[in-house]
Write a structure and sequence with these properties.
Blueprint lengths: L5 E2 L8 E2 L21 E12 L2 E5 L5 E2 H14 L34 H11 L12 H10 L3 E3 L8 E6 L3 E6 L2 E5 L12 E3 L13 E5 L1 H4 L2 E2 L4 E6 L14 E8 L5 E7 L22 E10 L5 E6 L4 E5 L5 H7 L8 E12 L2 E3 L2 E3 L2 E14 L11
Parallel strand pairs: 13-15
Antiparallel strand pairs: 1-2, 3-4, 3-14, 4-13, 5-12, 6-11, 7-8, 7-11, 8-9, 9-10, 14-15, 16-17, 16-19, 17-18, 19-22, 20-21
Length: about 400
């Protein structure tokens, strides 16, 4: 258990209290102070967009793992995050609102002990970006299974050691400096949040704490891990059409009194909108109808056509479409030979081919199709005058 000494001489007098911090959760409720309002801009790639929150990963540059860990520890301390029960467990490196318990009010964001340790590890590339954080022993088990740490404290000027009391508390030593969640008496943040423990972290002598050091090959490596930031979406940014994970964004933000960062503006290049339209069938252009008048001179035996001698003296043969009104008139005998008729018809080109020597010539003819027939005069009666 982490015994956090609350120095009453700084707040209420000379009374000292001993409190406990469980891994992933705290054992005391700290007084809270509102963070100073801040604003700024940051850019990175979107890792998640859900529940009214936007999380991005900033680009990193190649740097030694040890330096990355120390830089992240200082950065987190400077942010003055309070202790929040379960804070930092939803996504490694991202301060969270936590869950009901010490330091929790549903609005303020911060870290508990294992959430704070994981936030430093993810900045050094030693914990998967975007992955949730288990309790203290879950952190140790993960690192052991990947042979990143070994039992025992580290030695020498370049070392990182984790101190874990399973199920109770975890903190770390980075190159000779202790870091974790604490109070304002011997170092760290006055609200119990993460920071450098300038009191020397006397819990290192507690027999309940197990020690694990990062192997030398890990600390000699370089990492390009950036930082994760989560923003609440403000009124101007509630709708972000086309924004998806992996896209690069620039965010202007402000910090609320509870420490949450609120995105006031999000700049990104949305993919082009693809508009699909349902193809429409073009309206056919009506075929012009012409008219001709004359006497019927012949009707095909199958009623598929008939011929008239036009008033110009030129014969005209008309095709008849099966089932049409004209076809029905022919079948019924309503258009007899010698009847004088008016014909409405359409004309379409009819290519025909002829061969002259080795050259094929394709002159163009016309097909006339009757669309209507009006009988103007029936044929004269046949036979003689009859004698009485």
């Amino acid at each position: 258990m982490l015994r956090i000494i609350f120095n009453r001489s700084r707040a209420f007098g000379a009374l000292a209290a001993t409190v406990l911090c469980a891994a992933g959760i705290a054992g005391t409720l700290f007084a809270t102070s509102a963070q100073a309002a801040q604003s700024g801009q940051v850019s990175g790639s979107v890792t998640s967009l859900e529940g009214g929150q936007l999380t991005i990963q900033t680009p990193g540059r190649a740097v030694g793992v040890l330096n990355a860990l120390a830089t992240a520890a200082t950065r987190i301390e400077n942010d003055n995050f309070p202790y929040v029960w379960g804070g930092g467990h939803g996504e490694a490196g991202v301060a969270g609102k936590g869950e009901k318990g010490p330091g929790f009010n549903g609005k303020r964001i911060g870290y508990d002990c294992s959430g704070a340790v994981a936030a430093v590890l993810v900045a050094g590339g030693l914990w998967p970006e975007g992955q949730s954080v288990p309790n203290d022993w879950g952190v140790i088990d993960y690192l052991l299974s990947r042979k990143l740490i070994a039992p025992g404290a580290g030695t020498g000027p370049a070392e990182v050691t984790l101190y874990d009391d399973p199920g109770v508390h975890i903190f770390m030593n980075i190159d000779g400096r202790f870091w974790g969640t604490s109070d304002g008496a011997g170092g760290g943040d006055p609200n119990g949040g993460p920071g450098w423990l300038n009191d020397g972290a006397w819990d290192v002598t507690n027999k309940h704490f197990r020690r694990y050091h990062f192997v030398a090959s890990v600390l000699k490596a370089k990492t390009i891990a950036g930082y994760s930031f989560t923003f609440d979406l403000g009124p101007q940014t509630e709708s972000l059409p086309g924004l998806t994970a992996g896209m690069k964004v620039g965010i202007s933000y402000s910090t609320s009194k509870y420490g949450t960062m609120v995105a006031n503006g999000v700049k990104y290049k949305a993919p082009p909108t693809i508009t699909t339209t349902t193809p429409t069938t073009p309206t056919p252009t009506p075929t012009p109808v012409s008219t001709a008048a004359g006497a019927v001179t012949a009707i095909a035996s199958d009623d598929s056509s008939f011929t008239i001698e036009a008033s110009t003296g030129v014969p005209m043969t008309f095709e008849v479409t099966a089932g049409s009104t004209v076809a029905q008139q022919l079948v019924a005998g309503q258009i007899p030979v010698n009847a004088v008729v008016s014909v409405g018809y359409t004309s379409t080109p009819t290519p025909t081919s002829t061969t002259a020597g080795s050259t094929t010539v394709a002159p163009t003819g016309e097909t006339l199709t009757a669309v209507s027939v009006t009988v103007n005069a029936q044929p004269p009666p046949t036979g003689g005058l009859g004698i009485r």
